[in-house]
Amino acid sequence: MSVKTALVTGGASGLGYELALLLAKDNYNLILIDIDADKLEKTKKELQKNYSTKITILVKDLSIINIAEEIFNEIKNIPIDVLINNAGFGLFGTFADTDWQRESAMLNLHIMTTTHLTKLLLTGMVERKSGKILNMSSLAAFQPGPLMAIYYASKAYILSFSEAIANELKGTGVTVTVLCPGQTNTSFQEVVSQETSENKIGFNIACPNQVATYGYKAMLKGKTVVVPGKFNKFLSKLPRIMPRNTAASIVRKIQEKNRN
């Protein structure tokens, strides 16, 4: 049996690390991409202690324009069986006051790099009539998000994009899953609060291993939209039964409460 290869962005920590661990357990060779070289090396060593999988690490800033093409050119001779677009970060504050350099980097990462890398690797998957893609969205994708406007909007893009191409790919042997977790106990909060006020929500925080396992199993089954947790599933449906301006007001109140 030929060994399969999985590519994971943001694979050095958090949900990316947990997903890499699950893939290693299933004997996938791994290509892990992250901006943090030290954490990547540490992750590689940890995984190789317990698994015989081949691990390639690429230190890349995924917020740079056309970085997906650079990555693709480095790995184009390796058939990618699983693509996990996990890398991402948030930024808290009013849009009028937040830093545009951080916001443009977020848009490039969440939208341009995710879309471009998917496009570049999808062709080979379709030709081989086999492949799985897992895109990381968020519970934030289901409603507008005052005080984290760009983050919520970019995650909504990932959700919509993933659902659309999942439909297009029916019958090809390639599936697309979009994982929409709520608050998860990762380093995300630290990045959100960087250069701005803290945004630490102290309730309904999920275990990253459980979230990753839930999403991973859903990807293997070829499910499309996946929301871990009963309470999160309930929250994801609320915007359908209330006016969007009401949903936006509720989100803002939650954000303001947890800013203090």
Could you characterize what this model shows?
The chain has 260 residues and is of the alpha/beta class. It has a single domain, classed as Rossmann fold (3-Layer(aba) Sandwich), CATH 3.40.50.720. It has helices at 14-25, 37-50, 67-75, 100-128, 149-168, 188-192, 208-221, 230-241, 244-259, and strands at residues 5-9, 29-34, 55-59, 82-85, 131-136, 174-179, 225-226. It has a seven-stranded parallel sheet with strand order 3-2-1-4-5-6-7, sandwiched between helices. Helix 1 (14-25) crosses helix 7 (208-221). It is globular, with a radius of gyration of 18 Å.
Secondary structure: elements and pairs:
Layout: E1 5-9, H1 14-25, E2 29-34, H2 37-50, E3 55-59, H3 67-75, E4 82-85, H4 100-128, E5 131-136, H5 149-168, E6 174-179, H6 188-192, H7 208-221, E7 225-226, H8 230-241, H9 244-259
Parallel strand pairs: 1-2, 1-4, 2-3, 4-5, 5-6, 6-7
Helix pairs in contact: 1-7, 3-4, 4-5
Low-confidence stretches: 188-203
Please identify the top-level CATH class: Alpha Beta
CATH architecture: 3-Layer(aba) Sandwich
First and last CA, distance = 55 Å
- Rg, nearest Å: 18 Å
How many β-strand stretches? Answer: 7
Number of helices: 9
**How much of the polypeptide forms β-strand, as a percent range?**
5-15%
Helix content: 40-55%
Looking at how many chains there are and whether they match, the oligomeric state comes to single chain
Overall shape: it is: globular
Order of helices and strands: EHEHEHEHEHEHHEHH
Count of the separate structural domains:
1
